Amino acid sequence: MSERSFQGIGVSRGIRRGKVCLFQHGTKPDAERKIQPREADAETDRFNRAAERAVREVEELIAKTAGKLKEEELSVIRGQKTILSDPAYCPEIRKLIREELLKPEKAVSQVTEKYAAIFENMQNSYMRERAADVRDAGNRLLGILTGADRSGLAAIDHPVILVADDLSPSDTVQLNRDFILAFATEKGGKTSHTSIFAKSLRIPAVVGLTGILEAVSDGEELILDGSEGICIAAPEPDTVAEYERKGEEERKKEELYLRSAQQDARTSDGKRIVVAANIGSYADAAGSSREGAEAVGLFRTEQVYLSRQSSPGEEIQFQEYKKIAECYSPREVIVRTLDIGGDKNVKYLGIASEANPFLGYRAIRLCLDRKELFQTQLRAILRASRYGKLAIMFPMIADYEELAAAKAMLEEAEEQLAKEGIPFDDRIKTGMMIEVPSAALMADVLAKEVDFFSVGTNDLVQYSLAVDRGNKQVSYLYDYCHPAVARLIRQTSEAAHANHIPIGMCGSMAGDPLAVPLLIGLGLDELSMALDSIAQVKYEIGRLAFESCRNLAETAVNCKSAREVRNLLLDFRSGVIRS
Ligand code: PEP
Ligand code: MG
């Protein structure tokens, strides 16, 4: 086939060339339905065949990879075999099919989770890690039973460009970074959570490519340009050469940025701006430190939940938070409490579907309702706080009462720990996100109640401009350069400084070099962003003068439209580049 080009939305930069791997979420069988007693034999047989095939597959894998993998990696595969031949695991699944009349898929999930949870709560770290073996074995069985996905995400074992209808945040966190060169999806917007995770995984990505699944075929060659949002299938040799050149230029720029990455960020006239990282896991923490992050401005703890099949207990969370605290110590890590709901659904939490999930049961609202879930997390964060410098941040606070309730929950967790004689940092800072317009408008009141603010523009934009952040049909309206957004930020920043607390930003706007001068002019003290922007933003800050940023911000808040602000920022940027 001849060369074809597709325009989407570039969400994570980088140029990659590779073979297409198509992935589409199939319609899942109705696993929740109970079977009829007369179906029990047939369903048990179906399970038995799946179990035999799973063992065969694992044995073949061991034979195929022996000598090529390290002993550690091989033992992970062997672990699956051990689980599949365990005297309790498969029999218990069979029992649920026959006695409880569960579909095999449901029985496998249930037993797998039960065993994984048992392992996860063990004291011994070796045994805790066995939980992953149980889940691998369970996923293998589920893959065979649903006929879905062995050709799917978990089974990808060579470098590909993944072309999918959509990837949920939990799909994204499971992608194997070694094999996914890049990904392209039909759905998604610039700040949908999937795009955010792509950036933090540093996987080049383009979303919003309507029709691409139909238009390309498995194994076809594709070039993906994550900065320009372009995909080119079956590229001609001239196109390949052009993109190789572009790729080379990008690499040179990266080298230039990395040179200033390890110094503190300061404008040319001496204004200090803390450049921090948005992370979702310990792996991100380690990576961001290398990129020059001076702190963690946002640790999205929901990834700890999204990457599991059941709610992580206090001990698991404590271990994860502790590792991150230690990795960053003495630098600060702002741990955001669970922000689930909206476009981040966690199946095991059983959140009912809603007509307007972004306006519904989400983030702090859910945590205040599910006290046990919230207390477990708060205790884990507090326990980890003595291993570094942690701060706690509440997401999506819309009003004073909500903030007061969240703080009361934190106090309760502190009191409990104190009673139990468990040490924690009793001077831990508490902050809140400004991502709902009501919070920005009430910032003078709220500033008296917290130690810091952090502006979450991803949500602030969607709530103030009434534009769903993940809906590509209205993505033309979703623009953080809107003067209304600048006004809300300015109002919040003035309130923060009048009350002597710092204000950061952890929404995606903070990592956009075009927006950085405006943000500095609006008074932001800290900018926190995805890993791949840190070095460049530090480099750009060094070329700015604080005074001109302030003048720029003053003009921006008086503009009439987002377009006018964008043009203003583009002119400013070309002035900086020329000078
Ligand atoms: C935001 O809303 O800007 C933010 C940082 O939070 P999230 O993207 O996780 O909703
Ligand atoms: Mg948010």
Automatic annotation (TrEMBL):
Residues 260-543 form the PEP-utilising enzyme C-terminal domain. The keyword Cell cycle does not apply. This is Phosphoenolpyruvate-protein phosphotransferase. Residues 157-229 form the PEP-utilising enzyme mobile domain. The gene is ptsI_3. GO terms for molecular function: kinase activity; metal ion binding; phosphoenolpyruvate-protein phosphotransferase activity. InterPro entries: PEP-util_enz_mobile_dom, PEP-utilizing_PTS_enzyme, PEP_util_C, PEP_util_CS, Phosphohistidine_dom_sf, PTS_EI, PTS_EI-like, PTS_EIN. Its cofactor is Mg(2+). It catalyses: L-histidyl-[protein] + phosphoenolpyruvate = N(pros)-phospho-L-histidyl-[protein] + pyruvate. It is found in: Cytoplasm. One of its GO terms (biological process) is phosphoenolpyruvate-dependent sugar phosphotransferase system. It is an enzyme of class 2 (transferase). It comes from Caproicibacter fermentans. Phosphoenolpyruvate binds at R300, R336, N458, D459, R469. The active site is at H193 (tele-phosphohistidine intermediate), C506 (proton donor). Mg(2+) binds at E435, D459.
